[in-house]
Amino acid sequence: xxxxxVFLPIAAFIAILLGSPARFTAIAASVAxxxxxxxxxxTWQNECWNFSLPVLEKPALNLAFGMPDGMxxxxxxxxxxxxxxxxxxxxxxxxxxxxxxxxxxxxxxxxLGAFASTDLFFFYAFHELALIPTFIMIGLFGxxxxxxxxWKITIYLGVGSIVLLAGLLWLSxxxxxxxxxxxxxxxxxxxxxxxxGIAALLLIGFGTLVSLFPFHxxxxxxxxxxxxxxxxxxxxxxxxFGLYGLLRLAIPLLPDGLQAWLTPLLVLLLxxxxxxxxxxxxxxxxxxxxxxxxxMHMGYIFLAIAALIAMPSxxxxxxxxxxxxxxxxxxxxxxxxxxxxIERSTGSLDFTDLGGLAKSAPSLAFLFGIGAMASIGLxxxxxxxxxxxxxxxxxxxxxxxAGLSPLQITxxxxxxxxxxxxxxxxxxxxxxxxxxxxxxxxxxxxxTITDRIPALLLILSLLAxxxxxxxxxxxLK
Amino acid sequence: xxxxxxxxxxxxxxxILLMAEAFVPxxxxxxxxxxxxxxxxxxxxxxxxxxxxxxKPDAAWAxxxxxxxxxxxxxxxxxxxxxxxxxxxxxxxxxxxxxxxARFTDHPGSENGTGEYYALSVFACVGMMMLASAKDLAxxxxxxxxVTVTFYILVAYMRRNIGSLEAGVKYLILGALSTGFLVYGIxxxxxxxxTMSLAALPSSIANLQSTTPLLFGIALIMLGLCFKIGAVxxxxxxxxxxxxxxxxxxxxLSVGSKAAGFILTIRFLEPLLANPATSGPTLKLIFILAIAxxxxxxxxxxxxxxFKRLLGYSSIAHAGFLLLALATxxxxxxxxxxxxxxxxxxxxxxxxxxxxxxxxxxxxxxQRDGERIHDFAGLGKSNPLLATxxxxxxxxxxxxxxxxxxxGKFMVFSLAINAGLWWGVAIAAIGAAAGFYYYFNTIKAMxxxxxxxxxxxxxxxxxxxxxxxxxxxxxxFGFWPQPIxxxxx
Lengths: 477, 489
Fold this sequence. Notes:
The structure holds 2 protein chains of 2 kinds. Chain A has a domain at 261-477. Chain A is mostly helical. Helices cover 74% and strands 2% of the residues of chain A. Chain A has helices at residues 2-17, 22-42, 70-89, 97-116, 120-141, 146-175, 180-185, 192-209, 219-225, 228-238, 240-253, 255-260, 262-281, 286-310, 317-346, 357-360, 362-376, 382-394, 406-433, 439-442, 449-467, 470-473, and strands at 51-56, 61-65. In chain A, a hairpin with a 4-residue loop joins β1 (51-56) and β2. Chain A has 22 helices and 2 strands. In chain A, strands 1-2 form a two-stranded antiparallel sheet. By secondary structure, chain B is mostly helical. Chain B folds into 2 domains: 1-274; 275-489, no CATH class. In chain B, 74% of the residues lie in helices and 0% in strands. In chain B, α8 runs parallel beside α11 (276-301) and α12 runs antiparallel to α13 (339-368). Classes of the chains: A mainly alpha, B mainly alpha. Chain A binds chain B through residues 55-61, 63, 121-122, 124-129, 132, 135-136, 139-140, 146-147, 150-151, 154-155, 158-159, 162-163, 165-166, 169-170, 172-173, 176, and chain B through 332, 335-337, 341, 380, 391, 395, 400-402, 406, 410-411, 413-414, 417-418, 425-426, 429, 432-433, 436-437, 440, 444, 447-448, 479-482, 485.
């Protein structure tokens, strides 16, 4: 069944190229995929989701899909939810509907393919497939300095992918297979020196894709410039590929290798949370602020990964990371989608041009407020559950007499990030929605009913997981 | 049908074309090209029923001494088909390119003299097919010269164009130099071992007291071969000749001639790798050549502004990847392909991608009268489908996953990692990253740069069909490479 999930968006893309109505086809495919995705998450253990088709004899290569654990199911769920929201948010200028809807579908197919693949080759390949439309869309339809942003993301992610490829191939040459399940079964056969090298390659490769400090500088300009659906899909879904890859491959296969890089990783993730956090506070535009905030929040997920490296038996860290990946993906998609609406109704995202928008567009203000609260980590929304679990996981089995480990010191510093996010989110909210109305916002149009649907879909997911985290945690047991 | 019929038929085809061109009066010479294409396609079909002496040992022809110079195995079939397919596509390309050929040959406006172009391409094809069966250094040398001498003419074909003439002279001088290296090397190998037969080499190597003279000969031959495959240190001719030569010739040089060089290298290396006394130094030499080629090709491609020249550097870069695969010296195992398989596969995908790009380049050259990257600007707006095809082909050359180009690179990287050539992997990774940059530069120009020239490019029917087929093949082989590998059994 998983191939249907992956190839449905591609089929819809081809249909759009051949002339079927773009918006309708894209929405139909995304709704069908949402249903399939929910069904997949509910029954991920079922055999019917596994699929394998040999495409090459030597080296043995299979187009293989499956969900080896609930993490894949959660990521697939995230992809289908954000895809539908992104497609619904799309407002393409006349003449380029095909490109807009088609690229969203391709990005979605790439992400789904990457999360569903159990073969290393296709795991890598599908992710790259999703990057091409991302680059082209930013370069063609981005805001502001779009060419430079597109060029930067192309080069950064291209180089990151090659480093990653070297690491993955090294891994497959040592384990002698491209099948990820067989590979993980062979864990423990890799000697410590090789582990250290592969771990470095994977941390840099996956790290660049997830905008780990200091390989993050592509992210904020790209997201600030990208058309809303592309920003939603990339920041919300595709970026999680790097974290997914670390959790899926690096953690089980390279325990010793990652251990060696634990301290540098802790320093870098603090760079994400504190350094990029401060950069975020200084942003003068809403899109730049959201882009930077999404880089910053990656630090928390890396913190959970660090906890897993430090204590491989930690039962909290992996669910915490996956839960936060889901929550962040939904909330950032919500914020990017609504920021696009703000720009549409006021014509600007510069804080100095905005103010008092809540008066003219109350429902936009309300929905954006929920997104902002989620991003800060307000209880009741999914991000809170994720962040709390991350912080708790670093103190798992804490022994008061032994003092604090570097991991725990990092966690204590990282918690300041919550304050930082509160500062920049609330400041931005005040600048945009409160205060005296200015010319641009006086007559701004509020959200129509159809505009609200994607936002409500995302908020509903945030609330459901926030109020009842077991919805996802049960999948991750 | 005995295998050598294939070459005999191809030669006959070339002669027929030459006669037809000379004696059939007609204004348009396109039909000569069509005839060549049909003939090549028919011969391509015949490769499936060609057999070697092993299949029919009792036949009179199976006992001829020809078979001391000529072998027929699956690799030979693969590279013969390769040469035929490549020539076929080049002929199709030159049919649509004949307006430019005509402008610089005889009187402008008359197509007199463009018909020979097809005949010459077919002769070069015979040389490549012979090389695929090389079994003896003397025979291989003659075949190689058939290819090279034909190319001297093909490069300088537009004799009223100063660029083409300059390219021709450069190619002639450097080609002659490399031939000198090759012959000198063959003489040393013969002097050291007393044989020119590749099959007899391993036994004579085993009896050698000192391998130094032999290794010297091998080094000289490798230098000569580097000229053909476009590898450092014999790469200097590539950018200028690629830029100056008529576009179909450039395509032929970068694919056909390179593949011919590689099959000869493979044939030449096979006996040398069988013996540890020669395999170690030879592989080390190839490894050094591979590293130098990868660095030069990829880094020098970065600042290029002329697209044809860029393709020249890219062809050097791809030669580097291919040499790296050869340098691993990995034999075929039960669950991993060997170096020869990988090289052959890589070349097949390289043919598909590169010729596709050349088809588009030729039309841009004709209709926008320029070959700079800048001349591709705005193609995304004026011809979205064509731009998409070129994007796919260039992305494949850069090695983006789910295209045929990625599987080739993937296999080369796997081989190098299995063989523990860490420096090679590192340099190749840097090279691939540089590749992203320079191929995407053109993609960027097509989609993002504001165009000064917004004339839509219209593809003639043949080019359209070829570009579509090659682009789809690039995508299909990107996730289903088995058909190409099945040909290598």
